[in-house]
TrEMBL record:
Main location: membrane
Pfam families according to UniProt: RDD
Domain RDD: 11-157
Transmembrane segments: 12-37, 49-67, 121-142, 177-195
Name of the molecule in the record: RDD family protein
Keyword set, alphabetical order: Cell membrane, Membrane, Transmembrane, Transmembrane helix
Length: 314
């Protein structure tokens, strides 16, 4: 029975291979568009991911539908396609619905979310969609070996199959898989409750104030701020731990080689985050570029400062 099913249902690695090829095609397309619209993409900032979402959902929505025999470029190369339970290709609306359940979690993952939103109740549905969706997609991809349906396939009632194979009867999805998916979504909903308590703690509150001070600078579009430590063990077994404050500032203009701007941002950290004076290092990364989801381009320059050397400098 399993041998017959494997001939109709596409195997894991062939499906991943097709996705890799399609991602490469979209990446090249996004990079070519970026050659002409780089400045526009940079100004869009985090909203640039909507561009990649629009391109990818159009590509996969159209190509996975009956308009293209259920085959994207990657699926054509590897001879697989998207079908319904009767082994027929799916309509355009169903294809768009199917891909949206895959694209939305990936598009939201890593997006630059404002602090106001991060601290609001909207984080609960966002976590449900993003974290719950991603975990469920990965889990089903790996462990649902009989039907090989991931979350978006279950929602749309579709299968990815070998194009020249005949349809075969399949057992329903193993119910414990659905139970695990339910648990993953529940965990995703609970995560913001934990993270919100972290944001209310003193270190995080102070860091948020500093982040807002950096973003208020005229040249800075967005900023990410972290603290931590790194430990290095040398060949003579000496161990050295370095504590640091790290900031990555995304600029409106390609001035990543402007050391004066980097020093001003380091001084802003000292003024708004006094604990930085107890650190060994302040690391400032100036970044300029864009990320539209399907392609990205970044120019970065790193600067390091001793906090004590910046005291009293203006």
């Amino acid at each position: 029975m399993e041998e017959v099913q494997d001939k109709w249902i596409c195997g894991f690695w062939r499906r991943i291979g097709a996705l890799f090829i399609d991602s490469l095609v979209l990446g090249i397309l996004g990079s070519v568009i970026g050659l002409f619209l780089e400045d526009t993409f940079v100004q869009l900032g985090g909203w640039g991911r909507l561009i990649g979402f629009a391109v990818s959902i159009t590509y996969f929505g159209v190509m996975n539908s009956s308009l293209s025999n259920g085959q994207t470029i990657g699926k054509k190369i590897l001879n697989i396609r998207v079908v319904d339970s009767s082994n027929s290709t799916i309509s355009l609306p169903k294809s768009f619905l199917r891909y949206s359940f895959l694209a939305v979690p990936f598009s939201l993952n890593g997006a630059q979310i404002p602090n106001e939103l991060s601290l609001s109740y909207l984080m609960y549905p966002l976590s449900l969609i993003t974290l719950g969706g991603l975990l469920s997609i990965f889990y089903l991809y790996v462990f649902n070996r009989v039907t090989r349906q991931s979350l978006h396939d279950l929602v749309a009632g579709t299968y990815v199959v070998n194009a020249e194979a005949n349809r075969q009867e399949l057992p329903p999805v193993w119910k414990p898989h659905l139970g695990v998916v339910a648990v993953l979504f529940i965990v995703a909903v609970l995560v913001p409750a934990y993270t919100s308590s972290l944001f209310e703690s003193e270190p995080f509150k102070d860091l948020l104030v500093t982040q807002e001070a950096i973003i208020s600078k005229e040249s800075v579009r967005y900023a990410e701020l972290t603290t931590g430590s790194s430990t290095v063990t040398s060949s003579d077994s000496d161990t050295r731990t370095t504590t640091y404050v790290n900031i990555q500032a995304f600029l409106y203009k390609d001035n990543v080689d402007d050391a004066k701007t980097a020093k001003q941002l380091a001084q802003a950290i000292i003024k708004t985050y006094p604990e930085s004076l107890s650190k060994d290092l302040i690391q400032v990364t100036l970044a300029y570029g864009y990320d539209i989801g399907i392609a990205s381009k970044w120019n970065r320059y790193n600067y390091q400062f001793n906090p004590k050397d910046l005291i009293g400098l203006e």
